[in-house]
Amino acid sequence: MEYLGSAHYDDELTVYCRVSKLGRSSMTFIFEICRGGEAGPLVTAELVYVNADPQMRPAPLPEEVRERVRRYERVAPQS
């Protein structure tokens, strides 16, 4: 998470999120929070989700999930 600016109580904020990378058992999400109408984010963040089996070991992402992400994203995630 990187804080690049401050928001104020009555600011209208926009939150952007996309899957930037699909690994064998993980998905990397990137986020930006922007003040309405302004160029450049106030906050950026990255979150790595790891798919796990019932024993909490990494498990391959289901192909159905991969396909849904690929169809939804405008920019194809890295592999």
Q: Could you please describe the fold and organization of this structure?
A:
With 79 residues, the chain is mainly β. The protein has one helix at residues 63-72, and strands at residues 2-3, 13-22, 26-35, 43-50. The longest helix is centred in the C-terminal third of the chain and has 10 residues, at 63-72. It is elongated. The two termini are 23 Å apart.
Question: Spatial order of the strands in the main sheet?
Answer: 1-4-3-2
Backbone shape? elongated
The string of secondary-structure elements, in order, is: EEEEH
- CA gyration radius, whole angstroms: 16 Å
Strand content: 35-45%
**Structural class designation:** mainly beta
Largest sheet: 4 strands, antiparallel
Number of helices: 1
Mean of pLDDT:
95
Number of strands: 4
Descriptive keywords:
single chain; 79 residues; mainly beta; 1 helix; 13% helix; 38% strand
